[in-house]
Specification:
Blueprint (H helix, E strand, L loop, with lengths): L1 E11 L8 E4 L4 E4 L3 H28 L3 H22 L10 H15 L12 E6 L2 E8 L4 E2 L5 E3 L4 E3 L4 E3 L4 E3 L4 H33 L1 H7 L1 H30 L3 H6 L17 H10 L12 E11 L4 H5 L18 H7 L4 H13 L14 H11 L1
Antiparallel strand pairs: 1-11, 2-3, 4-5, 5-6, 7-8, 9-10
Helix pairs in contact: 1-2, 1-4, 1-6, 2-4, 4-5, 4-6
Amino acid sequence: MSAIMVSKKVLRKWEKLPGKNTFCCDGRVMMARQKGVFYLTLFLIVGTCALFFAFECPYLAVHLSPAIPVFAIVLFFFVMATLLRTSFSDPGVLPRALPDEATFIEMEIEAANGNVPAGQRPPPRIRNVQINNQIVKLKYCYTCKIFRPPRASHCGICDNCVERFDHHCPWVGNCVGKRNYRYFYLFTLSLSLLTIYIFTFDIVHVVLRSVDSGFVNTLKDTPGTVLEVVVCFFTLWSVVGLTGFHTYLVSLNQTTNEDIKGSWSGKNRVQNPYSHRNIMKNCCEVLCGPMHPSALDRRGELIELALAPVPIPASKNNKENPQTTKTTAPLIPNEHTPDDVKSSIAPETEGDVEEKLSPLENKPPPSEPPTPPPADPAETTAVLEEAF
């Protein structure tokens, strides 16, 4: 025998979230699965700053000002804080539709489109909304089973719909969207300043040392400085150019995805409904607007029920003294009974009954005790007299 036991297991919602993200620290850290380039970014920043603090800062603090390494340390920590904040935060992932919600949306779409004849392509799944007197199309996501909000897009690398999707940045190991764009912009801006700062004081360090020992001898004595100059030179153009491009986008209240697709600069010259037509207002909205909460509730509790059969061992008394009942019943043959069995359980015929009864009929009846003859009166009188 066995019984069914219901076990309750408490999970966190991030353990069951779809998509291609990785979570750490009990769901507090959220990143993409492809993190190799992110580690390269950390290595370049930490390595370059370590060389700068080891070789240039001691010399510059003595010969120029002790404020030089202090400002470099502050700038370094600000760069690392914005980088980690961008990489470890939820960019604005939208939760997927539940099965019931997806079924309801499908029914609404079928009711709106009607019956499509066989062989014809169904119409696109689009809804129109009006934003600042401008018609904006909401596209249906076949993966998440939802109509994406305005400015949202599906990231093919993370396999999630991201609100106000800008782009997927492999250098930070995460998508850049509504909830971490300001930190991404501050990261690129501060990294540009740090790169320019280190590159400038590397040149100053080489020039000051060249006055005493010559340029060639200085390069031989400071190989770390030469390596820093090379790294900063090739990094400077890309980082500063990226910062300038995003400054342009922030001033227009536009995303990289919208700029690449030409959403607001197409043939019809459709104006951006999200722009305030003012650079300061656009910058304040993008960089200083309210921080929206995450829609995922990654650390919420999720109860999972599991059913498992549990065997019940037989009691000792039942094993030692098994209760068996023996029942007997008359066997009645039928049409499905084999012939050899029928002969053993066939009913008795009248002849068999008579044979069993004949010895009983021929048996003599039990004999009665003999009756004594009547006594003579004279003998009886003589016996009485002798007795008296």
